[in-house]
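Long-time lurker. I teach an intro course on protein structure, and each term I like to show students one example going from raw sequence to a predicted 3D structure in token notation. This year I'd like something fresh instead of my usual example. Would anyone be willing to generate the tokens for the chain below so I can use it in lecture? Attribution to the forum is fine with me.
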Amino acid sequence: MSKARFFVNVLALTVLTLGITSLANAQATRTWVSGVGDDANPCSRTAPCKTFAGAISKTAASGEISVLDPGGFGAVTITKAITLNGDGTLAGILASLTTGIIVNAGANDIVYIRNVSINGAGNGLNGIRYLAAKALHVENCNIYGFGNNTAGNGNGIFMNLTATGLLFVKDTNIKNCAVSGITAQTSAGFATGILEHVRIEGEPTAVSIGNNAFLSLRDSVFNNNTTGVSISGSGSPTGSFDNCMLNNNSTAINVGATGILNLSSSTLESNTTAVASAAPGANLRSSGNNRLIGNTSDGAALTVVLQK
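-- Reply from a regular --
Happy to contribute to a lecture. Here you go:
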């Protein structure tokens, strides 16, 4: 190779490296979206983007996309650690015939979704589809109207993993989805989560705790569903309740043959059946401080396990 050719190749490699470095450096830790923004903008505070999808490519991993003012910011796929923050605004996603937010991030990535309204317009697929990430936090959100009842669709939040993951849902309302408010399952590892101050209404199943899933439900309300909470699948799925209200459901809690129920300080009221179960009685555990009142049938007997 001639010296001139060698010099040209080195120069080209240097230019390419600098270009890649500049592109990486162009990603900001915090970006902004606005109802009157433009995705051609750099997503800065004074030149915001229009959509979450437009901003995410300009936001560094573990950074934050903040919402400046009310608007509809479009469906988005999240492939890295990120925060979508709608604090103090009317931040919305209209997800007709699609999924509002897909989370398909890395094994060590943590994703936060705060103060966002996700509307399926009656025919959306899923509000949030959680496929991969170390953890997903959903806080102060409203999710409703996901009515597309085809395979894997029709859920407010669908935690459908192939490895271990964590789900935290807090101060969130979910209504009127075709299949479930929240479904949690994984084909490998464990799908673990905490639902706290969550209200789910008008679903065929408010919460479905499926294969290898272990959910703690605290200070939450499951009202006017066909099934309040279903605990069924492989890997001994477990639902642990503390200070929850399950009322006006056809079945408040349904426990499959391998499911485990831990019930404490909760009220099951005015349901057709309080607890339906195919599980052994030892898998239906009560701390002895629950209230079952006004149900057509209280259903399966619970094994009282006294707290120490």
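Some talking points for your students: The longest helix spans residues 3-26. The radius of gyration is 23 Å.
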